[in-house]
Protein backbone atom coordinates (compact mmCIF):
# COMPACT_ATOMS: atom_id res chain seq x y z
CA UNK A 1 0.00 0.00 0.00
CA UNK A 2 1.20 3.46 -0.79
CA UNK A 3 1.73 5.96 1.98
CA UNK A 4 0.23 8.46 -0.37
CA UNK A 5 -3.50 9.16 -0.32
CA UNK A 6 -5.35 8.74 -3.59
CA UNK A 7 -6.09 12.19 -5.00
CA UNK A 8 -9.58 12.18 -6.47
CA UNK A 9 -11.96 14.80 -7.87
CA UNK A 10 -15.71 14.26 -7.59
CA UNK A 11 -16.71 16.18 -10.72
CA UNK A 12 -15.80 16.16 -14.35
CA UNK A 13 -14.27 19.54 -15.18
CA UNK A 14 -11.49 21.04 -17.27
CA UNK A 15 -9.36 21.45 -14.13
CA UNK A 16 -9.87 17.84 -13.08
CA UNK A 17 -8.90 16.58 -16.55
CA UNK A 18 -5.77 18.73 -16.67
CA UNK A 19 -4.95 17.54 -13.14
CA UNK A 20 -5.04 13.93 -14.37
CA UNK A 21 -3.02 14.80 -17.46
CA UNK A 22 -0.32 16.56 -15.42
CA UNK A 23 -0.29 13.84 -12.77
CA UNK A 24 -1.51 16.13 -9.97
CA UNK A 25 -4.62 14.01 -9.60
CA UNK A 26 -5.09 10.22 -9.69
CA UNK A 27 -8.79 9.80 -10.34
CA UNK A 28 -12.02 11.48 -11.37
CA UNK A 29 -14.86 9.69 -9.61
CA UNK A 30 -18.38 10.90 -10.45
CA UNK A 31 -20.94 8.97 -8.43
CA UNK A 32 -24.20 8.02 -10.07
CA UNK A 33 -23.17 9.31 -13.50
CA UNK A 34 -25.56 6.85 -15.14
CA UNK A 35 -28.94 6.81 -13.35
CA UNK A 36 -30.42 3.39 -12.35
CA UNK A 37 -33.17 3.49 -15.00
CA UNK A 38 -30.59 3.36 -17.79
CA UNK A 39 -29.27 -0.06 -16.86
CA UNK A 40 -32.72 -1.34 -15.94
CA UNK A 41 -33.76 -0.70 -19.54
CA UNK A 42 -30.53 -1.57 -21.33
CA UNK A 43 -29.23 -4.38 -19.06
CA UNK A 44 -31.12 -7.35 -20.55
CA UNK A 45 -30.11 -6.29 -24.10
CA UNK A 46 -26.50 -5.78 -22.99
CA UNK A 47 -26.33 -9.20 -21.36
CA UNK A 48 -27.63 -10.87 -24.52
CA UNK A 49 -25.05 -8.99 -26.61
CA UNK A 50 -22.28 -9.98 -24.17
CA UNK A 51 -23.27 -13.65 -24.41
CA UNK A 52 -23.10 -13.42 -28.22
CA UNK A 53 -19.67 -11.71 -28.22
CA UNK A 54 -16.24 -13.23 -28.74
CA UNK A 55 -13.14 -11.83 -27.11
CA UNK A 56 -9.85 -13.32 -28.10
CA UNK A 57 -7.36 -12.19 -25.46
CA UNK A 58 -8.79 -13.76 -22.30
CA UNK A 59 -11.77 -15.80 -21.08
CA UNK A 60 -11.86 -13.57 -17.95
CA UNK A 61 -14.57 -11.31 -19.35
CA UNK A 62 -16.87 -10.82 -22.33
CA UNK A 63 -16.61 -7.76 -24.55
CA UNK A 64 -19.05 -6.17 -27.00
CA UNK A 65 -16.93 -4.56 -29.74
CA UNK A 66 -13.45 -5.36 -31.05
CA UNK A 67 -11.27 -3.21 -28.80
CA UNK A 68 -8.13 -1.39 -29.87
CA UNK A 69 -6.15 -3.66 -27.52
CA UNK A 70 -7.41 -6.70 -29.38
CA UNK A 71 -6.87 -5.00 -32.75
CA UNK A 72 -3.22 -4.33 -31.87
CA UNK A 73 -2.63 -8.07 -31.46
CA UNK A 74 -3.41 -9.34 -34.97
CA UNK A 75 -3.90 -8.16 -38.54
CA UNK A 76 -7.25 -9.88 -38.69
CA UNK A 77 -8.55 -8.05 -35.61
CA UNK A 78 -7.08 -4.77 -36.88
CA UNK A 79 -9.04 -5.14 -40.11
CA UNK A 80 -12.16 -6.02 -38.17
CA UNK A 81 -11.65 -2.98 -35.94
CA UNK A 82 -11.56 -0.64 -38.93
CA UNK A 83 -14.43 -2.37 -40.73
CA UNK A 84 -16.83 -2.67 -37.79
CA UNK A 85 -16.11 0.29 -35.49
CA UNK A 86 -18.81 2.64 -36.75
CA UNK A 87 -21.46 -0.08 -36.91
CA UNK A 88 -20.68 -1.29 -33.37
CA UNK A 89 -20.89 2.29 -32.04
CA UNK A 90 -24.30 2.60 -33.70
CA UNK A 91 -25.45 -0.77 -32.37
CA UNK A 92 -24.52 0.23 -28.80
CA UNK A 93 -26.11 3.67 -29.17
CA UNK A 94 -29.25 2.79 -31.09
CA UNK A 95 -30.04 -0.78 -30.10
CA UNK A 96 -28.57 -1.44 -26.65
CA UNK A 97 -29.39 2.02 -25.26
CA UNK A 98 -32.56 2.56 -27.31
CA UNK A 99 -34.93 4.90 -25.49
CA UNK A 100 -32.55 5.76 -22.63
CA UNK A 101 -29.40 7.15 -24.28
CA UNK A 102 -25.85 5.91 -23.89
CA UNK A 103 -23.86 7.35 -20.95
CA UNK A 104 -20.76 7.49 -23.18
CA UNK A 105 -22.61 9.63 -25.74
CA UNK A 106 -23.53 11.99 -22.91
CA UNK A 107 -19.90 12.03 -21.79
CA UNK A 108 -18.75 12.83 -25.33
CA UNK A 109 -20.99 15.89 -25.54
CA UNK A 110 -19.97 17.04 -22.06
CA UNK A 111 -16.29 16.75 -22.98
CA UNK A 112 -16.92 18.55 -26.24
CA UNK A 113 -18.39 21.45 -24.26
CA UNK A 114 -15.75 21.63 -21.53
CA UNK A 115 -12.52 21.06 -23.49
CA UNK A 116 -11.40 24.30 -25.22
CA UNK A 117 -10.96 22.66 -28.63
CA UNK A 118 -13.78 20.13 -28.18
CA UNK A 119 -13.93 16.35 -28.23
CA UNK A 120 -14.78 13.88 -30.98
CA UNK A 121 -14.58 10.24 -31.96
CA UNK A 122 -11.01 9.47 -33.14
CA UNK A 123 -10.36 8.60 -36.79
CA UNK A 124 -8.59 5.43 -37.79
CA UNK A 125 -5.67 5.39 -40.21
CA UNK A 126 -8.13 4.29 -42.87
CA UNK A 127 -10.11 7.52 -42.37
CA UNK A 128 -13.30 6.22 -40.79
CA UNK A 129 -14.38 6.64 -37.18
CA UNK A 130 -12.84 4.46 -34.49
CA UNK A 131 -15.02 2.44 -32.15
CA UNK A 132 -16.35 4.85 -29.49
CA UNK A 133 -16.69 2.40 -26.63
CA UNK A 134 -16.84 -1.24 -25.64
CA UNK A 135 -19.01 -2.92 -23.04
CA UNK A 136 -17.39 -5.55 -20.83
CA UNK A 137 -18.98 -8.06 -18.55
CA UNK A 138 -17.16 -10.00 -15.86
CA UNK A 139 -18.77 -12.87 -14.04
CA UNK A 140 -17.78 -14.51 -10.80
CA UNK A 141 -14.20 -15.82 -11.18
CA UNK A 142 -13.19 -13.14 -13.71
CA UNK A 143 -10.51 -10.48 -13.17
CA UNK A 144 -8.15 -8.34 -15.26
CA UNK A 145 -4.38 -8.64 -15.05
CA UNK A 146 -2.51 -5.53 -13.98
CA UNK A 147 -1.62 -3.64 -17.15
CA UNK A 148 -1.21 -0.29 -18.82
CA UNK A 149 -2.95 0.76 -22.01
CA UNK A 150 -0.31 2.06 -24.37
CA UNK A 151 -0.65 5.60 -25.64
CA UNK A 152 -0.43 5.08 -29.35
CA UNK A 153 -1.49 2.50 -31.88
CA UNK A 154 -0.72 2.22 -35.60
CA UNK A 155 -4.44 1.88 -36.23
CA UNK A 156 -5.02 5.44 -35.02
CA UNK A 157 -1.88 6.41 -36.96
CA UNK A 158 -2.64 10.10 -37.38
CA UNK A 159 -2.36 11.00 -33.68
CA UNK A 160 0.57 11.44 -31.36
CA UNK A 161 -1.09 11.24 -27.98
CA UNK A 162 0.79 12.54 -24.98
CA UNK A 163 -1.69 10.95 -22.55
CA UNK A 164 -4.34 8.29 -22.72
CA UNK A 165 -7.02 8.49 -20.06
CA UNK A 166 -9.11 5.41 -19.29
CA UNK A 167 -12.85 6.00 -18.81
CA UNK A 168 -15.28 3.50 -17.31
CA UNK A 169 -18.97 3.81 -16.53
CA UNK A 170 -19.98 0.96 -14.21
CA UNK A 171 -23.51 -0.12 -15.01
CA UNK A 172 -23.57 -2.97 -12.53
CA UNK A 173 -21.04 -3.93 -9.86
CA UNK A 174 -20.82 -7.04 -7.65
CA UNK A 175 -22.34 -6.95 -4.17
CA UNK A 176 -20.28 -5.92 -1.12
CA UNK A 177 -17.33 -8.31 -0.63
CA UNK A 178 -17.89 -9.70 -4.12
CA UNK A 179 -14.60 -8.36 -5.58
CA UNK A 180 -14.42 -6.49 -8.88
CA UNK A 181 -12.66 -3.41 -7.51
CA UNK A 182 -10.46 -1.30 -9.76
CA UNK A 183 -6.90 -1.81 -8.52
CA UNK A 184 -4.41 1.01 -8.94
CA UNK A 185 -0.66 0.89 -8.46
CA UNK A 186 1.37 3.98 -7.65
CA UNK A 187 3.37 3.38 -10.82
CA UNK A 188 3.04 5.26 -14.09
CA UNK A 189 4.87 3.58 -16.97
CA UNK A 190 6.35 5.97 -19.49
CA UNK A 191 8.81 3.54 -21.02
CA UNK A 192 6.41 1.45 -23.05
CA UNK A 193 9.20 -0.66 -24.60
CA UNK A 194 10.27 -1.83 -21.19
CA UNK A 195 6.64 -2.67 -20.41
CA UNK A 196 6.40 -4.79 -23.57
CA UNK A 197 9.41 -6.80 -22.44
CA UNK A 198 7.70 -7.66 -19.16
CA UNK A 199 4.32 -8.36 -20.63
CA UNK A 200 2.64 -11.75 -20.46
CA UNK A 201 1.89 -13.59 -23.71
CA UNK A 202 -1.88 -12.91 -23.39
CA UNK A 203 -2.04 -9.43 -21.90
CA UNK A 204 -0.83 -7.45 -18.91
CA UNK A 205 1.67 -8.29 -16.18
CA UNK A 206 1.95 -11.22 -13.80
CA UNK A 207 0.09 -10.21 -10.66
CA UNK A 208 2.40 -12.46 -8.60
CA UNK A 209 5.40 -10.42 -9.64
CA UNK A 210 3.94 -7.15 -8.36
CA UNK A 211 3.40 -5.83 -4.87
CA UNK A 212 -0.22 -5.55 -3.70
CA UNK A 213 -2.08 -2.66 -5.37
CA UNK A 214 -1.62 0.69 -3.67
CA UNK A 215 -5.30 1.53 -3.88
CA UNK A 216 -8.46 -0.45 -4.55
CA UNK A 217 -11.46 1.55 -5.63
CA UNK A 218 -14.94 0.14 -5.34
CA UNK A 219 -17.23 2.00 -7.73
CA UNK A 220 -20.98 1.92 -7.15
CA UNK A 221 -23.64 1.21 -9.75
CA UNK A 222 -23.67 4.03 -12.31
CA UNK A 223 -20.34 5.58 -11.24
CA UNK A 224 -17.88 7.07 -13.73
CA UNK A 225 -14.13 6.69 -13.17
CA UNK A 226 -11.38 8.33 -15.23
CA UNK A 227 -7.66 7.70 -14.67
CA UNK A 228 -4.36 7.80 -16.50
CA UNK A 229 -4.19 4.56 -18.50
CA UNK A 230 -0.39 4.51 -18.20
CA UNK A 231 -0.83 3.97 -14.46
CA UNK A 232 -0.66 0.22 -13.75
CA UNK A 233 -4.24 -0.92 -13.13
CA UNK A 234 -6.27 -4.11 -12.98
CA UNK A 235 -9.54 -5.61 -11.79
CA UNK A 236 -9.73 -7.68 -8.63
CA UNK A 237 -11.16 -11.16 -9.07
CA UNK A 238 -14.94 -11.37 -8.63
CA UNK A 239 -16.32 -13.90 -6.19
CA UNK A 240 -19.99 -12.95 -6.55
CA UNK A 241 -22.37 -11.29 -8.95
CA UNK A 242 -21.30 -9.59 -12.14
CA UNK A 243 -19.60 -6.42 -13.28
CA UNK A 244 -20.76 -4.63 -16.41
CA UNK A 245 -18.89 -1.53 -17.56
CA UNK A 246 -18.75 0.70 -20.60
CA UNK A 247 -15.20 1.69 -21.43
CA UNK A 248 -13.44 4.13 -23.71
CA UNK A 249 -10.25 6.15 -23.79
CA UNK A 250 -9.56 9.85 -24.14
CA UNK A 251 -6.57 10.46 -26.38
CA UNK A 252 -4.92 13.70 -25.27
CA UNK A 253 -2.57 15.80 -27.37
CA UNK A 254 -2.09 19.41 -26.23
CA UNK A 255 -4.60 21.92 -24.86
CA UNK A 256 -4.84 23.26 -28.43
CA UNK A 257 -5.98 19.93 -29.82
CA UNK A 258 -9.34 18.27 -29.41
CA UNK A 259 -9.78 15.17 -27.26
CA UNK A 260 -10.07 12.03 -29.39
CA UNK A 261 -12.27 9.23 -28.03
CA UNK A 262 -11.80 5.58 -28.94
CA UNK A 263 -12.06 2.12 -27.45
O1 LIG B 1 -12.97 -2.04 -15.75
C1 LIG B 1 -12.15 -1.40 -15.13
O2 LIG B 1 -12.36 -0.99 -13.98
C2 LIG B 1 -10.80 -1.07 -15.73
C3 LIG B 1 -10.75 -1.50 -17.14
C4 LIG B 1 -9.48 -1.06 -17.81
O3 LIG B 1 -8.51 -1.72 -17.79
C5 LIG B 1 -9.44 0.21 -18.52
O4 LIG B 1 -10.40 0.95 -18.53
O5 LIG B 1 -8.39 0.52 -19.12
FE1 LIG C 1 -6.91 -0.79 -18.92
Structure explained in plain terms:
With 263 residues, the chain is α+β, with helices and mostly antiparallel strands. It has one domain: Jelly Rolls, CATH 2.60.120. The chain is built from six helices and 13 strands. Strands 1, 2, 3, 4, 5, 7, 10, 12 and 13 form a nine-stranded mixed β-sheet that branches. It has a four-stranded antiparallel β-sheet with strand order 6-11-8-9, with no helix packed on it. The longest helix has 22 residues, at 75-96. The protein is globular and about 45 Å long. The model has no long low-confidence stretch (mean pLDDT 95). Bound molecules: 2-oxoglutaric acid and fe (ii) ion. Residues 144, 149, 166, 168, 182, 229, 233, 235, 245, 247 line the site of 2-oxoglutaric acid (AKG). The site of fe (ii) ion has 5 residues, from loops. Residues 127-252 form the Fe2OG dioxygenase domain. This is 2OG-Fe(II) oxygenase. Belongs to the iron/ascorbate-dependent oxidoreductase family. Keywords: Iron, Metal-binding, Oxidoreductase. It comes from Streptomyces violaceus (Streptomyces venezuelae).
Amino acid sequence: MSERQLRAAADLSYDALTGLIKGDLDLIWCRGYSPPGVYEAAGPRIETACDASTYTLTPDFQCVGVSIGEANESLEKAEQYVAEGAATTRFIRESLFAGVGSPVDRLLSQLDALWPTGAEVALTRAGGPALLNVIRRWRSGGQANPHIDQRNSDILGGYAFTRRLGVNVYLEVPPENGGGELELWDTVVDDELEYLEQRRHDYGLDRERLAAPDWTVRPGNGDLLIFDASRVHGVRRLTKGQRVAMACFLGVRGADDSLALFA
